[in-house]
Amino acid sequence: VQGEPTLAEVDAITEELRAWQPAVVVGIGGGSVLDAAKAAAILARHEGGVTPYFHQQRPLVHPSIPFVALPTTSGTGTEITRNSVLADPATNLKQSLRHRHMIPAVAMVDPELTLGAPLSVTAASGLDALTQAIESYLSLKANHATRALALQAVRLLWPALPRVCADGQDRAARTAMAEGSLLTAMAFGHSGLGAVHGLAHPLGLFLNLAHGQVCAILLPPVLRFNAPVVADRLAELATAVGLASGPAFVTATGELVSALGIPAGFRAAGLTAAHFPEILAQCRSGSMACNPRPMSDAEVLALLRDMAQV
């Protein structure tokens, strides 16, 4: 699977599974590989292709072929979630296929499997995990349990991310990243996320950018937008990573993103005003609904304009 899994790729895998009729499906790879395999494993026990299920025209009703997930990146946490993020190039739509039967039967999260990930993948996937932890902590649907998981994930990911990007063979840092990523999925699977992920799906699709990179670019400005209504929570995140205040945490997050080579906006990626209407139409997902500060259409457009100029 190259990049975001498409409906056609999922259909091709599904047909192979139907022909083999395996007792188990094993997915080994990053989030896109696991998402494609998860989707195919459940669709193999249904009729037809993925399109009507993706567009919610037909329901998933049958259990999946037992699925074993072996992630080779520390990022999405899809090895324990019920979601599979897919893209339909024909309709310019990226969204989740979702069902409780899609939760993998086994997740083998071994940091040794991530040692070969290149710097760009390590940074993007790691920043995705950190974004998920922060958004889960700030989500309107967060509770005491999800915040405990998300806060511990931030404690693990924050110091480990620059270390693992400096030395991909740092096993202690790789272990912290793997555990932190897993904890984020445990958290956001119940709490939801926020505006970063609401905007990241259409932006990543239209600009053909890696999901983690899009999240990393959006995280600092969305944190600044949310800061007036989550001051106490930002202060708690700051304390968790040894910083003095919530504003210091927001500033340090931007500095961390920049230090890992992530640009400050989407100008170089080709974002223009022509993209805005479709991004606006597609960003109103469950993630956006969980954002602690409601973001109006005008505020979304203002953010996009700022991001297109940097």
Descriptive account of the structure:
The protein is mainly alpha-helical. 55% of the residues lie in helices and 8% in strands. A three-stranded parallel beta sheet has the order 1-2-5, with helices on one face. Helix 4 packs parallel to helix 8 (211-226). The protein starts with 6 loop residues before the first helix and ends with a helix.
User: Structural class, please?
Assistant: mainly alpha
Q: What is the residue-mean pLDDT, rounded to a whole number?
A: 95
The helix/strand series, from N terminus to C terminus, equals: HEHHEEEEHHHHHHHHHH
Largest sheet: 3 strands, parallel
Q: Helical content, roughly?
A: 55-70%
Helix count from the secondary structure assignment: 13
| Number of E strands | 5
The value of Rg in angstroms is: 19 Å
Question: Keywords for this structure?
Answer:
8% strand, two-stranded antiparallel ribbon, 310 residues, mainly alpha, globular, single chain, 3-stranded parallel β-sheet
Secondary structure blueprint with pairings:
Blueprint: H1 7-20, E1 25-29, H2 31-43, H3 51-54, E2 67-71, E3 83-88, E4 93-98, E5 106-107, H4 119-138, H5 144-166, H6 171-191, H7 195-207, H8 211-226, H9 231-240, H10 246-259, H11 276-282, H12 286-289, H13 297-309
Parallel strand pairs: 1-2, 2-5
Antiparallel strand pairs: 3-4
